[in-house]
Amino acid sequence: MPFADFPLRRQRLATPLPIWRATCRADEWLDLAQAVATGGGRLISLWGSERPAEAGRADVVSAAYASSEGLLWVDLTLAPGGGGYPDLAGIFPCANRLQRSLAELLGIFAEPMADRRPWLNHGAWPADYFPLRQPASGRDSFPDRQLEDYPFVRVAGDGVHEIAVGPVHAGIIEPGHFRFSVVGEKVLRLEERLGYKHKGIDQRFQEMPASEGYRLAGRLSGDSTVAFAWAYCMALESLGASRTPLRARWLRALFLERERVANHLGDLGALANDAAFAFGLSQFMRLREDWLRLNQRLFAHRLLMDAVIPGGVAVDLAPAGAKELVAQCDAIASEVKKLRAIYENHAGLQDRFIGTGRVSQELAAKLGLTGFAARASGLAGDLRADFTMAPYSDQATRQALSRNGDVAARVMVRFDEVGESLRLIRLFASELPAGEIVTRLEPIPETRLGAGWVEGWRGEVLVALEADGEKIRRCHCHDPSWQNWPVLEYAVIGNIVPDFPLINKSFNLSYAGHDR
Amino acid sequence: MLKTLFKIVRQGIASEPRPDLGADFLLPAHRLQNAILEVLGRALTIREVDAGSCNACELEIQATNNVYYNLEGLGIKFVASPRHADMLLVTGPVSRNMALALERTYQAMPEPKIVVAVGDCAINGGIFGENYATCGGVGKILPVDHFIPGCPPPPYDVLKGILTAVNKRYGQPAAAPGKPGR
Asked: Which of A19, A381, A459, B107 has its CA 20 to 30 A from that of B172?
């Protein structure tokens, strides 16, 4: 659906990807959501803010929708004196947890909002303390509070029992709780409880100068540091319509692709390991280590943290370094090709992969699955391929697709994406345009809104920024894990418990990015 | 199968020498493994807990398990249960939602209960600071034996930090000065 079909006054933000901002009335809120859903669009994120208004302060609820045309950020200003906003969860199921977290941070509720269980607040702060609302500073602490139990949905029946896992898991991974209801080995239902890592990042942003916020954004989810830092910088740069140098844009894309490859390499190894094929882990972790060591040597950080900065990038690439990058891409491509053949010919591995954790295209579309996992379920969509943006469109970036939606499909898409990213890195490194790598941003004397939207390795990340000069009024960072975590609950239904780690790893969702 | 074996044979052994801990360490590196065995009577076992990190520290701790660093070759391994662990490796600023789980993990461990805090955030909360949702550094919750700085610390630093913590707890008083440990 083209957004233009809906009668809204839209303002185009000064971003390299097409992003608009508009305001709507309460009676238009649901109609717009319905129109987006009918037209095949998606809900990307939902958040709230308290903005200065003529009479004191006003509550604003914001939603971000994506369609083939671009991204639309819609604000709904709520009437003073309470009252909520219309519930979106009936149209977009992924709104459920977003609305619950908004209620906890700002005390703004959707109506009717059937599910009012707390999500991020496990009892660590009082239910009537809203850290993003004035006069709460968010700096108060409540050390004596007891954590509260969570009312999981109970499954009853003959032989049904529960398996509780977490928050501390049996590995070097992030914390979260999974409650399985099983019969024998078969999973009837999985319910997730997340929020353990909630650090109040939204509140923390409001204490930082706008020019420093990229560092915090880059630490929302460490495995996606380039994607978030870039999205933040895109948002900041859009406030004053700053144009970054061409060379910087190419280097940002190069960093993003290196991040994508690093994560896929690690996960391809871990996936084999979860199917008891330790050879895969050893081989891929070795490749990942080679990859990260070259990052360290050329760009001064193994995971490329703080490499993307406002106005451009922090490190340049010398011609000798470019040669090294190309040589490494060739070497890794040849190794990955061999390993892929081994994976594909390994009967035991394929037996575990094929048909496991299947997400149909229909379910994926309904739940709003995003990123490479969506592409593995046959849903086309990749910001790098769908829109015109340097340097991706210059290189005719291809998106990887599969239709099966099982672990095998997600493995296949990851292999394909490694191949495409290696091709892109070779091109970015060898055809890098000359010029500056950073430009100075002009100071913005007034309150403005900006946004950044980047296809990270896991999926699209969004940063919505409201700044008044150097002061950040509100910064909302959205990780694609918000969409994909609920899909995992469906993906495991009917599978056996021992396949859960495999299914989970095939998505590899971020706890930190979700809990923020 | 043949391809897999062929790959293993052609790849050879990629492991690198263990970290040189330098002269300022109480135990020379090559004696650490023996010390671990002498003191603990077995391999050093580690339980890792992410108490609220951004997950970058986890990526680097996972990397210590790759073939280059050969962690198990040093007599160190990660275990699933705190009841099997000698050392607790903690990352992140401690979120208030994780503080209880972290304390309980520590309580479940048998002696010697060595605690190592990994990363800048584990030292003092780092960029996340302290607020309604975050308590700050690991030291706010547990007695910490050793801190490993870095954002995130690379695997080599993590490995060195683990060895240093064992060394601090069990190292002999410094030998005659000027005699490097090798």
From this structure: B107
Residues A345-354: tens digit of each pLDDT: 999 999 999 9
Q: Are strands B87-91 and B76-78 parallel, antiparallel or unpaired?
A: unpaired
Please check whether residue B161 touches A, CB under 8 A. Answer: no
- Is residue B63 in a domain? yes
Put simply, the chain A residues between 205 and 224 with a CB less than 8 A from any chain B CB are 207, 215-216, 219-223
Residue A447 CA from chain centroid, whole number: 26
> Which 3-state string (H, E, C) describes A78-139?
CCCCCCCEECCCCCCCCHHHHHHHHHHHHCCCEECCCCCCCCCCCCCCCCCCCCCCCCCCCC
For residue B39, which of B167, B160, B146, B147 has the smallest C-alpha distance?
Answer: B167
What's the start-to-end Cα distance of chain A, in Å?
Answer: 32
Q: Give the pLDDT confidence score for residue A277 in this predicted structure.
A: 94
Q: Are A195 and B97 an interchain contact pair (Cβ–Cβ within 8 Å)?
A: yes
Residue of A nearest to B81 (CA): A170
pLDDT at res. B37:
64
- How is residue A327 written in tokens? 């040589």
Tokens 């933040």 correspond to: A232
Nearest to A282 among B48, B67, B80 (CB): B67
Residue that wins the pLDDT comparison between A325 and A149: A325
Q: Pick from A147, A174, A288: which is nearest to B55 by CB?
A: A174
Residue numbers in A near B11 (CB within 8 A): 283, 286
Beta carbons of B131 and A289 less than 8 Å apart: no
Specify the pLDDT at position B178: 38
Q: Is residue B33 part of a domain?
A: no
* pTM for the structure as a whole: 0.93
Instruction: Provide CATH code, domain A210-480+497-515.
Output: 1.10.645.10
Question: Which chain A residues touch B52 with a CB distance below 8 Å?
Answer: 196-197, 199, 512
| Chain B touched by A225 (CB under 8 Å) | yes
Q: CATH code for A3-111?
A: 3.30.460.80
Kindly report, as residue ranges, where domains of CATH 1.10.645.10 are found in chain A.
210-480+497-515
Put simply, whether B46 touches A (Cβ < 8 Å) is no
pLDDT of residue B34: 65
In angstroms, the CA A181 to CA A187 distance is 6
Residues in chain A within 8 Å Cβ distance of B82: 168
B13 touches chain A (CB under 8 A): no
pLDDT, residue B181, reads: 36
Q: What is the mean pLDDT of chain A?
A: 93
pLDDT at A496 over 50: yes
Name residues 248-277 of chain A within 8 A of B (Cβ).
Answer: 266
